[in-house]
Amino acid sequence: MASWIPIAETSDFSLQNLPYGIFSTDNSDPRIGVAIGEYVIDLKILAEEGVLGNLGSGGDTLKQSTLNAYAALGKDVHSRVRQTLQRLLEKDTQSGDALRDNQPLRDKAFVPLSNVRMHLPMVIGDYTDFFVGLHHAVTCAGLVKPGATIEQLCPCFYNLPIAYNGRASSVVVSETPLHRPNGQFPVDGKLVSGPCRKLDFEVEFACFIGRGNELGTSIEVDSAEDHIFGFVLMNDWSARDIQMYEATLMGPFNGKSFCTTVSPWIVTPEALESFRVAPKKTPRELPEYLVQKKEKSAYNIPIRATLGANGQRYRVADCNTNNVIFSFAQMLAHHTRGGCPLRTGDLIATGTLSGPERENAGCLLEQTRGGTEPYEMIAENSATGNVRRAYLEDNDVITFTARASGRGGNVGFGSCAGKILPAP
Amino acid sequence: MASWIPIAETSDFSLQNLPYGIFSTDNSDPRIGVAIGEYVIDLKILAEEGVLGNLGSGGDTLKQSTLNAYAALGKDVHSRVRQTLQRLLEKDTQSGDALRDNQPLRDKAFVPLSNVRMHLPMVIGDYTDFFVGLHHAVTCAGLVKPGATIEQLCPCFYNLPIAYNGRASSVVVSETPLHRPNGQFPVDGKLVSGPCRKLDFEVEFACFIGRGNELGTSIEVDSAEDHIFGFVLMNDWSARDIQMYEATLMGPFNGKSFCTTVSPWIVTPEALESFRVAPKKTPRELPEYLVQKKEKSAYNIPIRATLGANGQRYRVADCNTNNVIFSFAQMLAHHTRGGCPLRTGDLIATGTLSGPERENAGCLLEQTRGGTEPYEMIAENSATGNVRRAYLEDNDVITFTARASGRGGNVGFGSCAGKILPAP
């Protein structure tokens, strides 16, 4: 699918993608945009000019400063807007007058990506972090308790998608710097209070909820995908020393609540349709509420993590969204099984997406065997030396990128990046 | 402190109390009110009539449908409004013209409590449930693992206030019915999927945050009380079978996310000032960030739990807010120690407030030794027989009430009640 807008082969944002985000410029307040090539299209302006067709009672939702109201309209509306945008933007558009040949409107509605500042795309009511990565779970079990299997530590692991409630207030958009957190943890058997010494990242994939459900109702697994507005990359920054000390009874708390970073562009389910794949099989028979008819319920999207340090960039890990034993649909069905309400804007993440080998480890806890075996990270510019890390250092920048490539062009996520500042 | 409004000796709402809530009537949308005697005072109307004095830029906050904007103004404003209300309402008021002798305004602004419907008082961003009840922790440790101490299960228990992130979307106001949740759990060694069989309540005390803090900053323990807008009772309904099966690695999730009930009236710190008491001592030396200068940092407020069943009311337990090893100030200091932002409207709870004896157990898990020793609950009307419970049954109503009584009159919380409906 070609567009009259120039789209480089290396661009994440093909005509097949069209992800939503919230952007602002020096001259405009935060508003809804769609990325294509090197541009953001200002949907507020297109909606005001009436070129997006009749959205009925949802017409005003595209003029707001978050995506919540628009996401709540449901997938039929999103599908219609996507088709309209593709029709307007395709190379041989029949609707050239509306946008392509309307230079004054193009001047207003197209903003170079290099000129915009991105914001958190949705107001997040609750944020849930699942733990459905197969290799991450198996490896971490052995690290937490040498010789232990994940089923010994967590008998339900293969029977249901386990999760903890994350901290919505600490979710930030990519490029927001974070401070190394202070906390309590033992060092050589002695309890200390001070800056975290085992700061880590976690490579995750997450969805934003479009339509929610009411308290006391459940979402059926086979219709659960209708509740997903779209997907982002997520870095669940983790303070391993704080986390391991605090979490034995109630799960992660301060070890995870100092910052969680998401990529700014919400990629829609429609854009990812051709990258479907089955999740990893669980070895247990599932109860009916988790049996999903659609077999290809996960996605095959490679995610790369890199480290920026000393002015260089180093390869850290290659993960994939397919390393999960449950799909998002199964996660939503389980999340609401007891009647818990999901709301528009809720953020639901997979947990760490490690693959089977050390170079596929989605966090340093795994990659460095709990910090005991520092990992050699290879410089992208081979002229510079490599770098070793046990855990993250101040001023390190961790960046995730992800791109699925198909016949329709690249469907990429932009980047999910954060720089570590010293502890306050 | 006497008022010209008749206040019964059995009323929770003396002139010393003046708690805030959100109410509506058949004729009015949700709005801010203050309870006194058998009435709600409509603060929107008082603000519009200008009898509350000049609130500066905060003047419009009392005309909103939640307490968030008002709570964010900070304690100086709240203190001024409280003083103004007490001056207007005291028996020998010098400002009789403004309200007492202004019958048309009284007719508009005073609404009988029996005519109002109460709503959730604040929009809750995040909800955090701590676990700082001494007796609850000690007893539950032995139930989860016979012979185990709480420090064996949770080495940090006495060193820091532990907590898990709760589910904000499932917090409801008193009188909202709840469904018995469905879930997965083992029964006699076999995994089943269906309605919870071990449904429980938990007696808790909670605060709503007034002013928050920014990401990457911490709240100092000695100024933390300034961030508290006020207090409510809370029932952290728990599905013990679902919880015990799912929570071994990541803490409580579906076992707690089907419903959490709060009482509708937010009692202010000023109203509770004379009921201060020291928390229980922890046996460990605390790090500096948790050392609070003010010794009387907890409260002495008895909370009673009753069961409504068969048209009767039975006494279940007598707890007290003083059964904690950490104060709210210490909880907030710890919560933000790593830089986690609190926001206006966040709900922060203590965990279960059991006392030392069986009749002080704040949940059935403790009171019935994990369901193995059903508890005989005494009818308030001695003519009817008692009732026995291992766990809760469908149509049971659990109600918490709490009242501190001092020279200034009663400072009560109204009630925190919920009725259990069958599983969907």
UniProtKB/TrEMBL annotation, chains A, B:
Its EC number is 3.7.1.2. Residues 16-121 form the Fumarylacetoacetase N-terminal domain. Its cofactor is Mg(2+); Ca(2+). It catalyses: 4-fumarylacetoacetate + H2O = acetoacetate + fumarate + H(+). GO terms for biological process: homogentisate catabolic process; L-phenylalanine catabolic process; L-tyrosine catabolic process. Substrate binds at residues 131, 243, 352. Residues 161-402 form the Fumarylacetoacetase-like C-terminal domain. PANTHER family: FUMARYLACETOACETASE (PTHR43069:SF2). Belongs to the FAH family. This is Fumarylacetoacetase.
